[in-house]
Every structure is written in structure tokens, then in C-alpha cells.
Amino acid sequence: MSAQQHGLAMTEVLIAMALSLLVALAAASLLHAANGDFLHNGANARIDDSGRFALSIIGQSLRQAGYPGEPGAAAAGPSSPLAIDGRDAASLATNAEGLGDAQASVNGSDALAIRYAATEIVGATAGGAMLNCAGFPADPGEWAWSIFYIARASDGVGELRCKYKGENGWGSDAVVRGVDAFHVLYGIDMDSPRDNIPNLYLTASGIDALDAMLPAADRMLRPHWRRITSVRIALLLHGERGSRSGNRLSSYELLPGADPGARIDEAGLPAPMQHRARRMFTATVALRNP
Hints:
- The protein has three helices and 13 strands.
- The protein is α+β, with helices and mostly antiparallel strands.
- The chain has one domain (39-286).
- Strands 1-4-5-6-7 form a five-stranded antiparallel β-sheet, with helices on one face. Strands 9-8-10-13 form a four-stranded antiparallel β-sheet. A two-stranded antiparallel sheet has the order 2-3.
- Strand 5 and strand 6 (158-166) form a beta hairpin.
- The termini are far apart.
């Protein structure tokens, strides 16, 4: 083989190797993109399922709020326990009574407490179909609790928790993992006589401020909390690491124009929590037993 032919053969080999490398790089790029799409779609599907489940559990509990069980000591009245109660920017201690002993909040998240009293249904177990947020029936004639708040799991991931009072004291179970924030607004019927239609929506602090302006005797009854006829809830959930590509950081307004504290800016989150798929879930639930 002449030197010229040898050179041409080597050139052809180099061209073939270059083309092979280009094909391999293109295939690797397509595989990486497909894997990214798979992670993104899977994360969004899980976020969607978790968000819908959270709204369902909270909505079911809210529709039981204030239900007066009879007979028993839990009959509704002006001095009966509040059907709806809440705190802004607070997490809770598991073993404390109700909303007592507030803890540092997760990203400014709120706490929502719901009370109801179950009735005994003939042919059913105690409390019948009225279950707390953990799925346990309440004893007829006693006030039961479903309390929702955000706390961090042992690995630091935020989760929506359900706090309830069982036979052996207070307990708390995780409902949904991967929750960045949970915020609540309360719709108040300010008409007299009442028509059970909310005239304005306020945070828990806003309602407390209205009660604080009343005379001491009225203030103790917390009458504005007893005028709540609907509750607006908002949650922000996130996916796993690698579930969102790119370097762009976003901000999320959970309750636009209503609660300036209900805002999450990814730039203020820890670095491992920044570039993740996120989605907001909101619902407004009318109370059946105002």
C-alpha cells in the first residue's frame, strides 16, 4: 500500500470514529433528556396525587367542623369550644393540648384546628362515619379534634401533619410529605342577622385583632371566630431532587393580596431544596355547621 493510500485509509478511519462519537454523544444527550423528562413527569404526578389527597383530608375535616353531637356534653352553644381555631406562622408540639405550646413554623406555615362532636348512629360503631384526620372515630357526645400543621421529618423534609386526641392522649401523624408551606384564611360573616355568607377573609391574627377590640367579657368568648362560615386553604408542595432542570429560581404567592406572609421565594431556601418541581394547591371550603 502506498503512502497516499495509507493516508486516505487513516483519514477514513478517523472520520468514521468521529461520526461514531457524534452518534454516541447524540444518543447520550437524548437519553439524558428523556431521563430528565421522566423524572419531571413522575415528580409532578406524585405532587399532584399528594396535593389532591391533602385537600381532600382537610376539606372532609372542615365539613365536620362544629357538628353538635347529641346527647352529651358537647351540645353547641355560645360558650362551647370553637369549631374553628388557628394560628399564623406556627408549628405545634405533638403532646401539648390542642394548639398549645406553639413551635417555630416551617416557612411561616399556619396551624388549623377543627372541632366536631360525633353522634351515635344506630347499627354503626361509635361515632359512625365521622372520623378525625387520622381516620379514627370519636366517642359520641365528646368534642373531637383534627389539627393540621407543618413540621419537619427526621430528614428535614416538611410534611403536613394531623394532630388528634386519642384514647391514650395526643398524637400526630404525617399526612403528606414534601410540603413547603400551608396557609389559611378564614371567611367571616359580619352581617346581622347572619346569612352565612363571608363578607371578608382574614388571617388568624386578623380575627384575633377584631376580638381584642371588644370588651373583656365578650373578648373571652372570641365571637369573631364563631362567625366563620368558610375557610380558604393553600399548600405548596415540592418534588424530589433533580425533578426540575435549569438555574432559574421562582417565587410563589400562596394567597395573593390577602396574606403577605404566604410567600415562598426559592432563593431563600436551602440549596438542595431550590431546583425542584413545585405546585400550589388551593381550595375554599364552606362550613356546613356554622
